[in-house]
Amino acid sequence: MTKPLEGIKIIDFTHVQAGPACTQLLAWFGADVIKVERPGSGDVTRNQLRDIPDADALYFTMLNSNKKSLTLDTKKPEGKEVLEKLIRESDVLVENFGPGALDRMGFSWERLNELNPKMIVASVKGFSDGHHYDDLKVYENVAQCAGGAASTTGFWDGPPTISAAALGDSNTGMHLAIGILTALLGRDKTGKGQKVAVSMQDSVLNLCRVKLRDQQRLERVGYLEEYPQYPHGEFSDVVPRGGNAGGGGQPGWVLKCKGWETDPNAYIYFTIQGHAWEPICKALGKPEWIDDPAYKTAEARQPHIFEIFATIEEWLADKTKFEAVDILRKFDIPCAPVLTMKELANDPSLRASGTIVEVPHKKRGTYLTVGSPIKFSDLKPEVTASPLLGEHTDEVLASLGYSQQEIFNLREVKAV
Ligand code: CAO
Q: Which residues line ligand 1 (CB under 6 A)?
């Protein structure tokens, strides 16, 4: 099978999560991704949170599959020379160094564009260029705070809360991948490369779009009717944390199921979709609610929505989260069990679809990872192991025309 990105050569100058998530995606789809890493140490995640001594950590293996690894000291003149050769024949360079690091290395956008005017240079930074915080280094949780996610996540009587989902890292990487693919299509038309930049703050904010919607609604009308604070609580002038409330026009909540006293994940998410009120009443054995004026409309239900949720919890008390969903799905009610990582890892549907995959690795044995969440009719992305540090150094150098002796010399000066 020919993969859509076959023939696209990418210099992967990324580390930790945001950048690697982007280049991994492009590698799954066929791009030749060469990860450039510092000799001796490599991407810091190779060593972070190791579970097997002397083997790359899962943090690294799960974000760097399908790539090659070239060790190169790009601060040494010999290393710079190799990088320049690689730049001349690559389509894309992706980086997520701290602000100014690439410039300090001698590879500013102007220099890169001079070396290869067709190359796309893609960057992740914490904040966008020119932002008053653009000198800051940024990790996931910092971005979640700066992008509006933390102030709007959690419960109203608790502090701002971080999501476990990588809204700052992998989400930014996904945005960058869209930018790179757009620039590649643009290059087909213009013949020119360009700079593509995505900030983690912007990417988080992009996912918090509905909260900016709510800020404007709040300023206009003074309340937000789908938040638990309505109608009995107080609103200030900023979007509050809404706990587990639904973010759209239909209320929802995380509800207890059988066993919640001992199992912290014995819950389902239940959504009261307006037009599904009748089936909900039927499912719950509450036909009298269907035409009761106190329950009939969303407006009528809202003031006592938590009493309704409490009644649903009574109905759930003798049902596991899976049994409950199996009943509710027959009534077309949007709901799901709260699934644990263990349940997801063993989910036969996710295994069958290739979303959870087992990958054989030279040093680790087999490990689990998340495969492509994007499914195609003509492409089934195959996930292969992440490279060992410098595993492809000789191969990449040889492809650039270096002889065995020259490679030996580069090793002698510790440039590779
Ligand atoms: N050869 C030689 N030097 C190399 C090299 C190589 N192959 N690869 C990297 N380096 C050097 C860089 O040039 C830089 O040197 P100077 O600071 O002396 O110019 C140095 O390594 C450190 O780079 P850094 O600033 O990127 O690394 P850090 O560990 O201090 O910061 C991070 C990490 C993530 C906070 C920072 O890179 C950052 O803010 N990146 C942008 C935002 C981002 O992507 N964050 C997401 C990370 S995932 O949570």
A: 16-19, 36-38, 72-75, 96-98, 101, 104-105, 124-126, 137-140, 169
Of the candidates 33, 31, 34, the one whose C-alpha atom is nearest the C-alpha of residue 3 is: 31
pTM over 0.90: yes
Model confidence at 129: pLDDT above 70: yes
Which three-class secondary structure state does DSSP give residue 10? strand
Residue 275's pLDDT is 87
Sign of CA dihedral 136, 101, 395, 379: positive
Contact 92, 111 (CB under 8 A): no
| C-alpha of residue 12 to centroid of ligand 1, in Å | 13
Backbone angles phi, psi at 69, to 5 degrees: -120, 125
Q: pLDDT tens for residues 265-317?
A: 999 999 998 888 999 999 999 999 999 999 999 999 999 999 999 999 999 99
DSSP H/E element including 70? strand 68-71
Task: Give the pLDDT score at 353.
Answer: 97
Structure tokens, 32: 């030749």
Please give the DSSP secondary-structure letter assigned to residue 218.
H
